[in-house]
Design a protein that fits this description.
The protein has helices at about 1-10, 50-55, 60-65, 95-105, 125-135, 150-160, 175-180, 195-210, 220-225, 225-235, 255-265, 290-295, 320-330, 340-355, 360-375, 410-425, 425-435, and strands spanning about 15-20, 30, 45-50, 95, 105-110, 140-145, 165-170, 185-190, 210-215, 245-250, 275-285, 335, 380-385. It is an alpha/beta fold. Bound molecules: pyridoxal-5'-phosphate and zinc ion (ZN). The site of pyridoxal-5'-phosphate (PLP) has 18 residues, from α11. This is Threonine synthase. GO terms for molecular function: L-serine ammonia-lyase activity; threonine deaminase activity; threonine synthase activity. Pfam families: PALP.
Length: about 425
């Protein structure tokens, strides 16, 4: 793999990433398309030259960069000065005053990746990095095992970059997620099985077809993209870290990489050292990490998912033990909520902040509420809740749980009568009048 060898000659390039290193046994590898250690089968991770980073990067150099994740390029595992930039990242950090008041918190922010570009989920971050790296490693066909959002991102960004694309999804995904992939015209394999079965199939295809699977053989590069969710929050808070974060857990990767992002900013002196508490959110119908946390176990027992929160329905989470470790060592928590609570979470965020999130975001808000009510988030803590996806993609989840339009004749008196009734009746009663 000549491209991998090029990538190691970083002394002559702008690269600040060094090598791949096993998270378990520490064995080091060249920067190739590899995700599992040959010695112990542990996951491998990208390492950086932090001394070089400290000298090269400052708040000013970052602020002068593009208005996208690529302002943090020296912290990302790519060499090129021309990454695939489709405007991913730098999503709003919303001061959520009304939701904070409702929950009894003093300072709450929503990191709103429901409006991330180009496909309205945080997955655009990891895919922008993975496909930029895939191109550097010489792949012409890219692929993924997806719970929905990843297929949207991979198909869209591959289209932009002119890469061939074949994505794998479970056959029972929400219509919006399927359509939001097909529109880019990739090959779509709808597998009759759950995500964990899709993932197993893709591991075999990766071994036989030589494709770049963003979350399998390119996973060490892909997962680094999630650090930008940590970087941006630190920068948007005025180069400070929050006290507590709440984020959803599927494989657990996003959660652990936000932590890595904060640690890296501390290491190179961009923010003051501070302990940030990390709390994770799962859906009860797929909560292997929350169960292990609750039971004090340091291993994950896989489950068969059954929840409306399909985007985070991974029964055998690859980074589960590392997510457990982050929650425990930061004095955080990992909680789960049921499907009814998830729907309430979606509605609560919409009604208080005007943000329509998908089921994963509903899970996060419901867990946030649960943790505050249990006294596990202090009202004085500056808290950030990560909203990772858009509600327009999972409309079926809330169908039947929201109001209806007041259908009227195009006449002023019809409007006045309808308005009168809408004032005198609660929304639920009004629905009963209609039927
Ligand atoms: C994939 C996904 C996650 C979680 O991702 P992991 O890194 O696998 O934990 C969270 N939210 C949404 C909307 C997702 O699509
Ligand atoms: Zn190893």
């Amino acid at each position: 793999m000549t491209q991998a060898i090029d990538a190691t000659t970083h002394h002559h390039t702008h690269a600040t990433f060094d090598k791949l290193k096993c998270k378990e046994c520490g064995t080091e590898y060249e920067l190739q398309a590899k995700h599992v250690c040959e010695m112990c089968f542990g996951p491998v991770e990208v390492t950086y030259d932090y001394d070089a980073l400290r000298q090269r990067v400052s708040r000013e150099t970052i602020e002068a960069g593009p208005n996208s994740i690529w302002r943090y390029r020296p912290f990302l595992p790519v060499q090129t000065d021309n990454p695939i930039d489709v405007g991913t990242g730098m999503t709003p950090l919303v001061n959520a005053r009304r939701l904070a008041r409702q929950l009894g918190l003093k300072k709450l922010y929503i990191k709103n990746d429901a409006v991330n570009m180009p496909t309205l989920s945080f997955k655009d971050r990891v895919v922008s990095v993975a496909l930029t790296r895939a191109r550097e490693l010489g792949f012409s066909t890219v692929s993924c095992a997806s719970t929905g959002n990843l297929a949207n991102s991979t198909a869209a960004i591959a289209a932009h970059a002119g890469l061939d694309c074949c994505v794998f999804i479970p056959a029972d995904l929400e219509a919006g997620k399927v359509l939001g992939t097909l529109i880019y015209n990739p090959t779509v394999m709808a597998v009759k099985g759950n995500y964990d079965q899709v993932n197993r199939l893709c591991s075999e295809v990766a071994n036989t077809h030589g494709w770049g699977f963003v979350n399998i053989n390119l996973r060490p590069y892909y997962s680094e993209g999630s650090k930008t969710l940590g970087f941006e929050v630190a920068e948007q808070l005025g180069w400070q870290l929050p006290d507590h974060i709440v984020a959803p857990l599927a494989s657990g990767s996003l959660f652990t990489k936000i932590h890595k992002g904060f640690q890296e900013f501390i290491k190179v002196g961009l923010v003051d050292d501070k302990s940030v508490r990390f709390s994770g959110a799962q859906a009860e119908g797929c909560s292997p990490i929350a169960s292990a946390f609750r039971e004090g176990r340091d291993f994950i027992t896989p489950v068969k998912p059954n929840t409306i929160a399909k985007s985070i329905a991974i029964g055998n989470p690859a980074d589960g033990v590392y997510a457990l470790d982050v929650a425990r060592k930061t004095n955080g928590n990992i909680e789960s909520v049921n499907d009814a609570e998830i729907i309430d979470g979606i509605k609560l965020l919409a009604e208080t902040e005007g943000i329509f999130t998908e089921t994963a975001g509903g899970t996060t808000i419901a867990v946030l509420k649960k943790l505050v009510e249990a006294g596990k988030i202090d009202p004085d803590e500056t808290t950030v809740a990560y909203i990772t996806g858009n509600g327009l993609k999972t409309q079926e989840a809330v169908q039947g749980y929201i109001g209806e339009p007041l259908t009227i004749e195009p006449k002023l008196d019809a409007f006045e009568r309808a308005l009168e009734r809408s004032h005198t009746l609660g929304r639920l009663e009004w629905q009963q009048v209609l039927v």
